[in-house]
């Protein structure tokens, strides 16, 4: 019998609507209603508080002698299929700080799953965070609450007064200090469970990244300068190291997230090939952008940045734990800060025979890569 000590998930209330119907849950979209004119299923659900299944069966049969054990197990199966019950497990952590996370993750598990397993996977992970700007500094704050084993941070910049409107990790007294130094101290104070390793370095080549990827489970790329070019540099490194990477970037009033799992999804160069194959305007647009030598001012609205970084960190957890399906595998997940909407772009494939980075293709076969050259950033 797969049911041992089943219970209705504590995140959901169980209550009657009338003598014909009852509910489990009280949130639009995930509340489940049951027609139950005889009250048998309600009797079962209201007794699922963690006691042994044999005790539950006896109590329900005392009230409804006509029900067989198979009838009651059938009712349990119905509740399980609706995602509202779980197995009662001993508390596997003595740290109350993570219990709200675990309660959230219980939404996504069934009777045969362990709600602690998702948080455990986070605890066992090492994350390489590239950049401590408007994205990276806020990503780091969110990561500290999740409690990964280790975060390796790479950045070269110092805190400026103009950062403080959207980089909420920093304080006025930090102006002029290295961001990595401030970040390490701040996270040590936020969550002493997390080991923080910092490196003061401006990334200019894929080799700059490869020296830090040993033992890393996930890379988060929160650097976007030079535009597009730096993502290609990071892409080369993570493909060579076979480490998944969640990329994020913000442009004016929208943000985008996309994830590359090397040799599983299409990589960033595959995206360039996809546009080259299917968008007749792509090459001319890219050339025009590069030739414009556009140097945009800082454009960052704090609430908008939080929409973006929340999506980046949640996507990172999805990739690490698979508690829910990732939203940006081989596609760009776009967030509109203006109205709070989001959508996914068309998925791009992996071009194994044509991609010069994750496949066996030749770089000279694709004109687009000629325009990724930059005097300060090297691809290799």
UniProtKB/TrEMBL annotation:
- Keyword annotations: Nucleotidyltransferase, Transferase
Q: What is this protein called?
A: ThiF family adenylyltransferase
**One GO cellular component term:** cytoplasm
Q: Which Gene3D superfamilies match?
A: NAD(P)-binding Rossmann-like Domain (3.40.50.720)
Q: Does the keyword Cytoplasm apply?
A: no
Q: Where is the THIF-type NAD/FAD binding fold domain?
A: 116-356
Origin organism is Lacticaseibacillus zeae
Q: Does the keyword Transferase apply?
A: yes
Q: Which domain of life is it from?
A: Bacteria
Molecular-function annotations in GO: nucleotidyltransferase activity; thiosulfate-cyanide sulfurtransferase activity; ubiquitin-like modifier activating enzyme activity
Q: Which InterPro entries match?
A: ThiF/MoeB/HesA, ThiF_NAD_FAD-bd, Ubiquitin-activating_enz
